[in-house]
């Protein structure tokens, strides 16, 4: 697959040959779903907690006498059936993460990249650089290029000035190639790869 390369000012900068193994796959919704669910579950804090019968603060005095009251034989106000009593089998802190094979994770990333390429929402730039790190300058460039909610993936490292300028733009996110992930790619309207980013992703997924 051949794609035109542009500079950040919109001018042409040649073309690049994209690997069909990485950018020419037929996207599978089931694979993308599995990888996104794995990411979201891994990121979930799992700090939900309720107090059990042994943790609530209440008197331990027996409520009524054992016989003769005409009611049930209750022994504690901490029982789950009473107001302010403990919760039975409620949530406790735990990890929601689950395993997903490396093969499926790699496949999911390749399918996410292929989905953007098929939809015509993949842009390759010569380099993601900016002089001075001014947010206003980058905002003007992004507006002129027509990018809405763009994710920029660079090579092994990200240009510091470019990252600093993008930090205050809600519509632009910047990641190094090792930070590329399925959920971030699918969430953004436009995926922008540098030439270094293309090489790094192809080396990672082949």
Automatic annotation (TrEMBL):
Keyword terms: Ribonucleoprotein, Ribosomal protein, RNA-binding, rRNA-binding
InterPro entries assigned: Ribosomal_uL4 (IPR002136), Ribosomal_uL4-like (IPR013005), Ribosomal_uL4_dom_sf (IPR023574)
Pfam family, one: Ribosomal_L4
Region annotation (Disordered) ranges: 66-97
Entry GO CC: ribosome
Transmembrane feature ranges: none
Superkingdom in the source lineage: Bacteria
Record function comment: Forms part of the polypeptide exit tunnel.
UniProt family annotation: Belongs to the universal ribosomal protein uL4 family.
HAMAP family: Ribosomal_uL4_B
Subunit structure: Part of the 50S ribosomal subunit.
Protein name: Large ribosomal subunit protein uL4
Annotated source species: Jannaschia pagri
Gene giving rise to this polypeptide: rplD
């Amino acid at each position: 697959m051949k794609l035109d390369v542009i500079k950040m000012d919109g001018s042409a900068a040649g073309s690049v040959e994209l690997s069909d193994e990485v950018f020419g796959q037929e996207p599978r919704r089931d694979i993308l779903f599995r990888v996104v669910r794995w990411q979201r579950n891994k990121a979930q804090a799992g700090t939900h907690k309720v107090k059990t019968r042994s943790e609530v603060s209440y008197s331990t005095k027996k409520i009524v006498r054992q016989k003769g009251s005409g009611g049930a034989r209750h022994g504690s106000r901490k029982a789950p059936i009473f107001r302010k009593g403990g919760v039975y089998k409620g949530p406790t802190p735990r990890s929601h993460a689950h395993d997903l094979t490396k093969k499926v994770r790699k496949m999911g990333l390749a399918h996410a990249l292929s989905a953007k390429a098929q939809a015509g929402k993949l842009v390759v730039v010569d380099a993601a650089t900016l002089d001075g790190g001014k947010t206003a300058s980058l905002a003007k460039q992004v507006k002129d290029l027509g990018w809405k909610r763009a994710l920029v993936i660079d090579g092994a490292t990200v240009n510091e000035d470019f990252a600093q300028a993008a930090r205050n733009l809600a519509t632009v996110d910047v990641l190094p190639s090792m930070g590329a992930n399925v959920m971030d790619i699918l969430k953004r309207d436009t995926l922008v790869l540098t030439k270094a980013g293309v090489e790094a992703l192809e080396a990672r997924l082949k």
